[in-house]
Amino acid sequence: MVFLCLNLSFLVLCLMKFLATYIFLIASLGFLTTCGSEEYKGEVIAQVGETALFEDDIRGLSWNAGDSARVVGKYIEEWVAQEALLQAAEKDENINAAEIDHKVEDFRSDLYIHQLLKHRVETALDTVVAENEIQAYYEEHKADFQLNDYLVKVLYLKVPLDAPEVDKVAATYKLQRESDQETVETFAKMYASNFYYDVDNWIYFDDILKEIPLHDINKDRFILKRSKIRFEENGFYYFLNIIDYKLKNSISPLNFERNNIKTRILNMRMKDLREKIENEIIQSAYDNGEVQLP
Predict the structure, then answer these.
(1) Which residues lie across from 155 on neighbouring strands?
(2) Predicted confidence band at 38 (pLDDT cuts at 50, 70, 90)?
(3) From CA 9, how far away is CA 208, in angstroms rounded?
(4) Is residue 24 pLDDT above 50, yes or no?
(5) pLDDT band for position 127 (50/70/90)?
(6) H helices of 173-253, where?
(7) CB 251 within 8 A of CB 98
(8) The total number of structural domains that make up the chain
(9) What range defines the domain where residue 52 resides?
């Protein structure tokens, strides 16, 4: 009995050692297989020469449920075409690979410099433009602000034919009384499909024509007479009141050009700041002894 127990203990110990060794070998083999192979990217869905397109490569595509096949098919077709052309170019002895590598390196350098200057300019740029600076720029550059079309101040409404109390708008859209503006605005909030009125700002008359279907008008006469009209078309009433205008070929008013001028001033600041930063970086390289010349 003692002998039998000793043999059983010995067998169990051997079995445990065998299992431990087996598990270690399997784990080691799995580790080596993972390290020695590329990350699994799904099934190959297209291949040109030795280059493959995998499922993972198209997972980022965006499509609707109904056109997934079309989107994927087009992507694969374009990928195959580009890869075929690229491989043909790489094999062509007439292609100067060194020249291409040189251009790629130049482009890489330009990208680095662009990102550096872009970040530093954005960090240091003063984006506050004072009103007196805007006015001074306007006075000095009036020739740049000549109008090519009429500017107008207008009131217009687009109202469905079945809207109630349309006669109220017909009686007030000409703004002949102080109370008319409030009446029109109240009606517009409730019933108008489209409404515009801003007595402080100018807009191009051609922008109005995009909203109101005016046909066969003499634009010059229509604006100069400060026309006020009402008509119906395609299920809507239209009301238009030309309140004021600026002649084309005259100088555009400051309040119309304010944002444009601010953008111009900021662009000039960015250009000057960029040049200043470039010069400071280059000068620093000289001062620190980083530049070696023969």
Answers:
(1) 197, 241
(2) low
(3) 99
(4) no
(5) very high
(6) 180-191, 205-209, 219-224
(7) no
(8) 3
(9) 44-91
